[in-house]
Amino acid sequence: MSCLDAQIAEPEHRPQVIGVLNVTPDSFSDGGLWADPATAVEHGLVMVEDGAGWVEVGGESTRPGTDRTPEREERRRVVPVVERLTAAGVTYICMHWRGHSRTMQQRATYDDVTREVVAELRRQLDAARAAGIDADRLVVDPGLGFAKTAEHNWRLLHDFARLRQELGYPVLLGASRKSFLGRLLAGPDGRPRPPRDRDHATTVLSAYAYAVGAWGVRVHAPAASRDAIDVAQRLRAAARRTQT
Protein backbone atom coordinates (compact mmCIF):
# COMPACT_ATOMS: atom_id res chain seq x y z
CA MET A 1 0.00 0.00 0.00
CA SER A 2 1.43 3.41 -0.96
CA CYS A 3 1.58 6.46 1.33
CA LEU A 4 -1.37 7.85 -0.60
CA ASP A 5 -3.44 4.68 -0.13
CA ALA A 6 -2.88 4.84 3.61
CA GLN A 7 -4.25 8.36 3.70
CA ILE A 8 -7.43 7.84 1.68
CA ALA A 9 -8.31 4.17 2.05
CA GLU A 10 -10.83 4.84 4.82
CA PRO A 11 -14.23 5.83 3.37
CA GLU A 12 -14.65 8.63 5.88
CA HIS A 13 -11.23 10.25 5.31
CA ARG A 14 -11.52 14.00 5.65
CA PRO A 15 -8.89 16.65 4.91
CA GLN A 16 -6.84 18.17 7.68
CA VAL A 17 -7.69 21.84 8.23
CA ILE A 18 -4.53 23.92 8.54
CA GLY A 19 -4.88 27.46 9.88
CA VAL A 20 -2.57 30.12 8.42
CA LEU A 21 -1.01 32.37 11.06
CA ASN A 22 1.27 35.01 9.51
CA VAL A 23 3.51 36.85 11.95
CA THR A 24 4.75 39.16 9.20
CA PRO A 25 4.19 42.90 8.65
CA ASP A 26 3.54 42.53 4.91
CA SER A 27 1.67 39.30 4.04
CA PHE A 28 -0.99 39.90 1.37
CA SER A 29 -3.95 38.81 3.50
CA ASP A 30 -3.25 39.59 7.15
CA GLY A 31 0.14 41.30 7.30
CA GLY A 32 0.71 43.08 10.61
CA LEU A 33 -2.34 41.71 12.41
CA TRP A 34 -0.45 39.04 14.36
CA ALA A 35 3.05 40.53 14.67
CA ASP A 36 2.89 40.58 18.48
CA PRO A 37 3.66 37.07 19.85
CA ALA A 38 0.94 37.19 22.51
CA THR A 39 -1.69 38.24 19.97
CA ALA A 40 -0.44 35.60 17.54
CA VAL A 41 -0.69 32.85 20.14
CA GLU A 42 -4.21 33.94 21.06
CA HIS A 43 -5.28 33.89 17.40
CA GLY A 44 -3.64 30.50 16.89
CA LEU A 45 -5.64 29.06 19.76
CA VAL A 46 -8.83 30.56 18.32
CA MET A 47 -8.04 28.81 15.02
CA VAL A 48 -7.80 25.50 16.88
CA GLU A 49 -11.15 26.18 18.56
CA ASP A 50 -12.58 26.94 15.10
CA GLY A 51 -11.60 23.51 13.81
CA ALA A 52 -7.97 23.80 12.69
CA GLY A 53 -6.08 20.62 13.46
CA TRP A 54 -2.81 22.33 12.55
CA VAL A 55 -1.52 25.91 12.70
CA GLU A 56 1.13 27.05 10.19
CA VAL A 57 3.22 29.94 11.53
CA GLY A 58 4.71 32.02 8.70
CA GLY A 59 7.57 34.45 9.28
CA GLU A 60 8.22 35.52 5.69
CA SER A 61 5.78 37.00 3.21
CA THR A 62 5.67 35.13 -0.11
CA ARG A 63 3.47 37.58 -1.99
CA PRO A 64 4.71 38.21 -5.55
CA GLY A 65 7.53 40.75 -5.77
CA THR A 66 8.49 40.83 -2.10
CA ASP A 67 12.10 40.74 -0.93
CA ARG A 68 13.51 37.87 1.08
CA THR A 69 13.45 38.23 4.87
CA PRO A 70 16.82 37.87 6.64
CA GLU A 71 17.01 34.55 8.47
CA ARG A 72 17.61 36.19 11.85
CA GLU A 73 14.48 38.32 11.47
CA GLU A 74 12.38 35.33 10.37
CA ARG A 75 13.54 33.39 13.43
CA ARG A 76 12.73 36.36 15.67
CA ARG A 77 9.18 36.42 14.34
CA VAL A 78 8.49 32.70 14.32
CA VAL A 79 10.33 30.98 17.17
CA PRO A 80 8.48 32.58 20.14
CA VAL A 81 5.13 31.67 18.59
CA VAL A 82 6.13 28.13 17.59
CA GLU A 83 7.56 27.45 21.05
CA ARG A 84 4.18 28.28 22.59
CA LEU A 85 2.04 26.49 20.00
CA THR A 86 4.16 23.37 19.54
CA ALA A 87 2.19 20.22 18.79
CA ALA A 88 3.44 16.64 18.84
CA GLY A 89 4.81 15.20 15.61
CA VAL A 90 6.34 16.83 12.57
CA THR A 91 5.17 16.59 8.96
CA TYR A 92 7.31 17.91 6.10
CA ILE A 93 5.33 19.63 3.35
CA CYS A 94 7.18 19.60 0.03
CA MET A 95 5.84 22.48 -2.11
CA HIS A 96 6.45 23.20 -5.78
CA TRP A 97 7.99 26.60 -6.45
CA ARG A 98 10.33 28.10 -8.99
CA GLY A 99 12.61 30.94 -7.93
CA HIS A 100 11.40 33.18 -5.12
CA SER A 101 8.75 35.85 -4.69
CA ARG A 102 10.58 38.56 -6.66
CA THR A 103 11.23 36.38 -9.73
CA MET A 104 8.77 33.50 -9.57
CA GLN A 105 6.17 34.85 -12.00
CA GLN A 106 8.86 35.27 -14.66
CA ARG A 107 9.32 31.50 -14.47
CA ALA A 108 5.63 30.61 -14.84
CA THR A 109 6.09 28.98 -18.24
CA TYR A 110 4.94 25.40 -18.86
CA ASP A 111 4.04 23.20 -21.79
CA ASP A 112 1.99 20.92 -19.50
CA VAL A 113 1.82 22.44 -16.03
CA THR A 114 0.62 19.28 -14.27
CA ARG A 115 3.22 17.03 -15.88
CA GLU A 116 6.05 19.46 -15.12
CA VAL A 117 4.93 20.11 -11.54
CA VAL A 118 4.78 16.35 -10.92
CA ALA A 119 8.29 15.88 -12.36
CA GLU A 120 9.76 18.72 -10.30
CA LEU A 121 8.03 17.57 -7.12
CA ARG A 122 9.40 14.07 -7.64
CA ARG A 123 12.92 15.51 -7.63
CA GLN A 124 12.17 17.41 -4.41
CA LEU A 125 10.74 14.27 -2.81
CA ASP A 126 13.81 12.28 -3.80
CA ALA A 127 16.00 14.95 -2.21
CA ALA A 128 13.91 14.88 0.97
CA ARG A 129 14.18 11.11 1.21
CA ALA A 130 17.92 11.30 0.58
CA ALA A 131 18.17 13.80 3.45
CA GLY A 132 16.66 11.21 5.78
CA ILE A 133 13.01 12.28 5.93
CA ASP A 134 10.77 9.22 6.19
CA ALA A 135 8.18 8.75 3.45
CA ASP A 136 5.32 8.67 5.96
CA ARG A 137 6.23 12.21 7.07
CA LEU A 138 6.00 13.68 3.56
CA VAL A 139 3.09 15.64 2.10
CA VAL A 140 3.19 17.44 -1.25
CA ASP A 141 1.74 20.81 -2.24
CA PRO A 142 1.48 21.85 -5.93
CA GLY A 143 2.08 25.46 -4.89
CA LEU A 144 -0.92 27.28 -6.33
CA GLY A 145 0.14 30.84 -7.12
CA PHE A 146 3.86 30.13 -6.78
CA ALA A 147 5.33 30.52 -10.27
CA LYS A 148 1.84 29.84 -11.65
CA THR A 149 -0.64 31.94 -13.59
CA ALA A 150 -4.35 31.83 -12.77
CA GLU A 151 -4.88 29.40 -15.65
CA HIS A 152 -2.12 27.14 -14.29
CA ASN A 153 -3.83 27.15 -10.88
CA TRP A 154 -7.18 26.13 -12.34
CA ARG A 155 -5.55 23.37 -14.38
CA LEU A 156 -3.80 21.98 -11.31
CA LEU A 157 -7.06 22.06 -9.37
CA HIS A 158 -8.80 20.21 -12.20
CA ASP A 159 -5.96 17.66 -12.29
CA PHE A 160 -5.79 17.16 -8.52
CA ALA A 161 -6.58 13.45 -8.71
CA ARG A 162 -3.83 13.06 -11.31
CA LEU A 163 -1.34 14.72 -8.93
CA ARG A 164 -2.28 12.26 -6.19
CA GLN A 165 -2.10 9.23 -8.44
CA GLU A 166 1.20 10.10 -10.12
CA LEU A 167 3.05 11.27 -7.01
CA GLY A 168 1.79 8.58 -4.62
CA TYR A 169 1.91 10.90 -1.60
CA PRO A 170 -0.78 12.81 0.31
CA VAL A 171 -1.46 16.19 -1.32
CA LEU A 172 -2.26 19.49 0.38
CA LEU A 173 -4.50 22.07 -1.27
CA GLY A 174 -3.54 25.68 -0.51
CA ALA A 175 -5.84 28.09 -2.34
CA SER A 176 -7.11 30.25 0.52
CA ARG A 177 -7.72 33.91 -0.45
CA LYS A 178 -5.28 33.69 -3.35
CA SER A 179 -5.21 36.26 -6.12
CA PHE A 180 -6.64 33.97 -8.80
CA LEU A 181 -9.83 33.82 -6.73
CA GLY A 182 -9.84 37.58 -6.34
CA ARG A 183 -9.57 38.07 -10.09
CA LEU A 184 -12.32 35.53 -10.78
CA LEU A 185 -14.62 37.40 -8.38
CA ALA A 186 -13.70 40.91 -9.56
CA GLY A 187 -16.35 43.60 -9.29
CA PRO A 188 -17.95 45.52 -12.18
CA ASP A 189 -15.00 47.93 -12.15
CA GLY A 190 -12.59 45.04 -12.76
CA ARG A 191 -10.90 45.34 -9.39
CA PRO A 192 -10.08 41.98 -7.78
CA ARG A 193 -12.08 41.14 -4.68
CA PRO A 194 -10.05 41.94 -1.52
CA PRO A 195 -8.35 38.97 0.18
CA ARG A 196 -10.61 38.94 3.25
CA ASP A 197 -13.69 38.75 1.00
CA ARG A 198 -12.53 35.54 -0.72
CA ASP A 199 -13.41 33.13 2.09
CA HIS A 200 -16.69 31.94 0.52
CA ALA A 201 -14.79 30.92 -2.62
CA THR A 202 -12.16 29.27 -0.46
CA THR A 203 -14.77 27.13 1.31
CA VAL A 204 -16.03 25.85 -2.06
CA LEU A 205 -12.51 24.63 -2.79
CA SER A 206 -12.30 23.07 0.68
CA ALA A 207 -15.39 20.99 -0.12
CA TYR A 208 -13.82 20.13 -3.48
CA ALA A 209 -10.65 19.08 -1.65
CA TYR A 210 -12.66 16.53 0.31
CA ALA A 211 -14.28 15.24 -2.88
CA VAL A 212 -10.93 14.65 -4.60
CA GLY A 213 -9.18 13.12 -1.58
CA ALA A 214 -6.88 15.93 -0.47
CA TRP A 215 -4.80 15.29 2.63
CA GLY A 216 -5.53 18.77 3.92
CA VAL A 217 -6.51 22.36 3.18
CA ARG A 218 -4.48 25.42 4.15
CA VAL A 219 -6.91 28.21 5.04
CA HIS A 220 -7.16 31.56 6.80
CA ALA A 221 -10.70 30.96 8.17
CA PRO A 222 -10.78 27.38 9.53
CA ALA A 223 -14.37 27.38 10.81
CA ALA A 224 -15.92 27.93 7.38
CA SER A 225 -13.79 25.24 5.74
CA ARG A 226 -14.54 22.80 8.54
CA ASP A 227 -18.26 23.36 7.93
CA ALA A 228 -17.85 22.89 4.17
CA ILE A 229 -15.99 19.62 4.68
CA ASP A 230 -18.63 18.42 7.16
CA VAL A 231 -21.36 19.03 4.58
CA ALA A 232 -19.41 17.35 1.77
CA GLN A 233 -18.69 14.36 3.99
CA ARG A 234 -22.35 14.01 4.93
CA LEU A 235 -23.41 14.13 1.28
CA ARG A 236 -20.96 11.36 0.43
CA ALA A 237 -22.28 9.25 3.30
CA ALA A 238 -25.84 9.73 2.02
CA ALA A 239 -24.78 8.66 -1.46
CA ARG A 240 -23.24 5.47 -0.08
CA ARG A 241 -26.42 4.61 1.79
CA THR A 242 -28.44 5.12 -1.39
CA GLN A 243 -26.14 2.78 -3.30
CA THR A 244 -26.48 0.03 -0.69
UniProtKB/TrEMBL annotation:
Highest taxon of the lineage: Bacteria
Region (Disordered) residue spans: 56-75
Any GO MF annotation of the entry: dihydropteroate synthase activity
GO biological process: tetrahydrofolate biosynthetic process
Listed GO CC annotations: cytosol
Residue span(s) of domain Pterin-binding: 1-230
Gene3D superfamilies linked: Dihydropteroate synthase-like
Positions with biased composition (Basic and acidic residues): 65-75
UniProt name for this protein: Dihydropteroate synthase
Organism: Jiangella rhizosphaerae
